[in-house]
Amino acid sequence: MAPLPVTVIGGYLGAGKTTLVNHLLRHAAGRRLAVLVNEFGDLPIDADLIEAEEDGMISIAGGCICCSFGSDLIGALGDLAAMEPRPDHILVESSGVAIPGAIVSTMLLAEGIRSDGIVVVVDGETVRQRALDDYVGDTITRQLSDAEIVVVNKTDLLAPAAQTELMAWLAEAAPGAIAIPAERGRVAPGALLGVLPAPGAGQPADHSDRLFDSVVLTPEGGQPVEELARDLATGPHGVIRAKGYLRDIDGALWLIQTVGHRWEVTAAQGPHEAGLVCIGFRDRLDRDGLAELAGVTA
Amino acid sequence: MAETIIYAARKIITMAPSRPEVSHVAVRDGRILGIGTLEELASWGDYLLDDRFAGKVLMPGFVEGHAHTMEGTLWRNVYVGWFDRMDPDGRVWSGLKSIDAVVDRLREAEAQMTDPEAPLAAWALDPIYMENRRVTRQELDQVSTTRPIGILHASGHIMNVNTRALELAGLMKPGVNHPGIPLGEDGLPLGPLYGPDAMTPVGPHVGFDRALTDCDERGLRDYGKLCVRAGVTTCTDLAARLTDDSVDMMLRVTAEDDYPACIVPLRVFFGMSAEEIVDYCVSLKPRSTERLRLGRIKAVADGSIQGFSARLRWPGYYNGAPNGLWYTAPEQMSELYHRALAAGVQVHTHTNGDQATQMALDMLEPALKAHPSPDHRFTLQHCQMADAAQYRKMRSLGMNVNLFANHHFYWGDEHYRLTVGPERACRMNACRTALDTGVPMAIHSDAPVTPLGPLFTAWAAVNRITASGRVQGEEERISVSEALYAITLGAAYTLHMDGEVGSIEVGKRADFAVLDSDPTQTDPMALKDIGVWGTVQGGRVFPAAAL
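^ inputs. structure came back:
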């Protein structure tokens, strides 16, 4: 069975992690998301989404669930991976003071799961000030330095010049990440999780989707896969995430996954059709450049 | 009328300001009817004179303000510590000075086990005294390759395991990539597991389950025995989860006629919101009994100094390690303080590093302004690195402190040369400064991290000797009488219990530590060696020899 993708959602208290998680649950579009939270202290799920609640598990409309993991993340991941039917994707909402990279190291000790990105949520209005705080500044900069995607909330409250400054600051603070501006966590699930709507599930109306677009690349013949993955992740093509299978110049099949500026190339398990889905900002996705990169005609 | 017993003793050190030393104490209904001469006490009416303590020295029963009853449960595993240590049944296990000796003791324990697949668990290893030598899985494989073996370190934050344990946890494979799991040259885990994240997946396979911080029923009874042997009659359990089941169990066990101590468990601030934990503790408080006191909260601000997870102010760690971790964010601490003060629930806060201490002070001040609370007695626990200004602030805010005096002995050398450097190592656990500043102070063992033993803890605060024999921070030493106050009334004060225990005075609970010799007439260097005959708790006599 393919490893279960796990995305860690980090960020300091009040940045909007829970709002983001609720947004993703509302727009899961047929995907079964499982959310793991440290604790149920402040109820993490909007009441109208809850279908049932018992024994540390909240059942959510559309087959999604939310569980608390206390101090045993690995046990909780193992339980989720063993569920029938298995979730499609796990979101781990970390505590506000946790360092997300450390959570990823730990969760990779569990069998059958795969890290699928670190999303750090920040409050666009306050993050730069917070990063200077004597007590929590280094916690916030450590969180950002682990990020692959930064969701920047409240950018709508910033003047254009301040937004530009903030984005420049984030590019330094989170060098491995792509920053996505958002209002109240409204980011298309596809951009964050790479989960495209299941066929036939229908696209929920959500204006945040209009910010993003995707392009499918199906190159013929072999590619230098490592270089291609690197260029997708670090090049100027506006790609937030890319995932798919490509053949190298010797004909071997590889799984390519990029999140933010980080990329991963692993040997494909079993047969797959070659093809790569790239998701990016609608206004920045460089279709021609990507086609050229992959040696195909767009 | 209830029976009156008058105990005659060689000397009774009362801690009562008006009569500091007497020869007799009268007990009725489990409480102290009076102190003085036999003549004075005889005037209360009929009595039974009991002179079994005629050769003994009585002190108020000791109060341990920061320990964990899980030590009672840990003793069911094999002890492999560096120092000699007494188990609940009074057997002294010799300290082990080499890994070979550890392996030998594990082999002995293994030979007595019948099920070849049952886990073998040991505890209290401290390789700091063996040049920080790492223990590999192959070394533990010498004991057994069929059963999982795990050794929990004295710090509680490191575990050593054998190959079988790694196999069961699914970690015996190449490609494990975790900062807490070092790999050998063969690309497989070496055996040590650093930190809870690395330990958690393996712990259940070696007999250390997920609820390690809670003691079980037998453990609580065994813990009571340790209290008697140490002269302790009131003891905190400083970070309990206090589930419904565990509260019921603790109520049942402590209510047993022969349970020898009053246990004060604090609900740890984890897994609940500030609102929930305050409400929960308010609901627990009325369930308190004579021997189980409920309704207090323990918060944890940061990690540990020797684990480099404590939060330090500039200039940070001496060896350049990055700053530690917050376990509770400032905003969460603030909310907890506000709600707890509003509800009248006491909070004890673990702060090891000086930045964590500052954070707690900074969060408490506005909360106190919002909810003026005379006599709140919020207490900083460990508070190892506080400086003089922070003590002055504690005094202004009406805070108490409970310092980890035993740390000098066990890890003082390590702090001096590695974690915080000479100057800050010498001012760690600054008992002298706390008292001179007027901050109410207790001192503690943090058992099972170090052994429960208030006389040892007093010795540590009086002498500040490290394991290598150096005096570290002589200016911060305190006198014997100050130390004896700290382990009785000092600790009782931090729990709002100084009106009922901590001194031998009329009306208080008849709690005595029964000692073989007089700590005020002993060479201060021999304080830790004074024999403990047993205790009297609530008027009930508990000879250690009869446990």
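The mean pLDDT of chain B is 96. Residues 203 and 386 of chain B are 34 Å apart (CA to CA).
thumbs up if we can close this ticket
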